[in-house]
Amino acid sequence: MSVSIGIQLYSLRDALATDFEGVIRKVAAQGYAGVETANAAFVSTTPKAAAKLFTELGLRVSSAHIDLPLGDKKNVV
Predict the structure, then answer these.
(1) 12, 19 in Cβ contact below 8 A?
(2) Phi-psi region of 9 (alpha: psi -120 to 50; beta: other; left: phi over 0)
(3) With contact defined as beta carbons under 8 Å apart, do 28 and 57 qualify?
(4) Strand arrangement of the beta sheet that strand 6-8 belongs to
(5) What pLDDT is recorded for position 19?
(6) pTM of the model
(7) Which DSSP string do the residues of 22-77 spell out, in sequence order?
(8) Is 16 helix (H, G, I), strand (E, B) or coil?
(9) What whole-number distance in Å separates Cα of residue 6 and Cα of residue 76?
(10) How far apart are CA 10 and CA 54, in angstroms?
(11) For residue 4, what are the contacts with CB-CB under 8 A and spacing of at least 6?
């Protein structure tokens, strides 16, 4: 049985802020199968552009490190 390993992008937030595409390409090249996105990871790109890159590299998004939609934010997605 093989195990797929993902990485939490929040842990790479400083590097992602300066070279999002380059860092994500290195993540994929190191053999990671997926990523957990984080709001802090999208400083230098957009979620749409990131999704395109993830798809190109075969990286799955397993989860998201984001605020829960509570209170006034409960209808914001």
Answers:
(1) no
(2) alpha
(3) yes
(4) 6-8, 34-38, 60-65
(5) 95
(6) 0.82
(7) HHHHHHHHTT--EEEEEGGGGTTS-HHHHHHHHHHHT-EEEEEE-----GGGTT--
(8) helix
(9) 27
(10) 16
(11) 33, 34, 60
The total number of residues written for the chain in this structure: 77
Q: Which helix (H) or strand (E) holds 34?
A: strand 34-38
If residue 6 lies in a helix (H) or strand (E), which one and from where to where?
strand 6-8
11-61 residue pLDDT tens: 999 999 999 999 999 999 999 999 999 887 888 898 899 999 999 999 999
Quick check: 73 pLDDT over 90?
Answer: no
CA 22/CA 69 separation, integer angstroms: 31
- The strand pairing partners of 64, in sequence order, are 37
